[in-house]
Design brief:
Layout lengths: L10 E5 L3 H7 L4 H22 L3 E8 L7 H20 L1 H4 L1 E6 L7 H13 L5 E9 L1 H17 L10 H5 L12 E4 L18 E4 L9 H13 L8
Parallel strand pairs: 1-2, 1-5, 2-4, 3-4, 5-6
Helix pairs in contact: 1-2, 2-3, 3-5
Length: 236
Amino acid sequence: MAVKENNIPRHIAIIMDGNGRWAKKRGLPRTAGHAAGAEAFRRTANYCRTLGVEYLTVYAFSTENWKRSEEEVAGIMRLLGKYLEEALADMEKNRVRFKFFGDLSRLSPQLQKLCYDAQNRSADYDVQVNFCLNYGGRDEIVKASAAFARDVAEGKHQPEDLTEELLSSYLYSKDVPDPELIIRPSGEKRTSNFLLWQSAYSEYVFLNVLWPDFQPKDLDEAISEYCRRNRRFGGV
């Protein structure tokens, strides 16, 4: 193992970026890039489990991704459905707990059922994978704020009750620690509306590798970079 066990972040988040460019470089349709990206996710999730990472959060589909072609969106949803069907069949062996961050109501009824079945059947398992699906950081904060406002209107809270901790309890990520490390492959250097609230003190590592080519050695490199940093949280 290239990294020391006592330096492994408890929670790693990944912006899975570069599928389309990977396919374009090879003269393939974008759906082929997403299929290769799905394999990269399996590879990475399995490796995270061997490292002892407790939480892995991946950006699977953003609120902005609906702007893509119907064909590409349908292909992504088919791949997700296929993965969840396989995961449900293999759940006992892998013992991975599934959670979904995002507004699932826009998904097909069949895909929603797969998501909720995976979430419910894995509730008592160990390592947790959070899929950000139809997710946007700003949308999450807006929905959390609206939920708090409704509770104020119903007399459950007063406006002055609001604290960071209370607002966090309205987020999709409630009860999940904030990620210590966020990785973005593909060479892009922006947050793309991902975990805006939760990433306040996360360490970002940007890698020049397209997501379908992401290997365990790339995760080792990101963790090693994380370990070299001095995390002061605003202190000295």
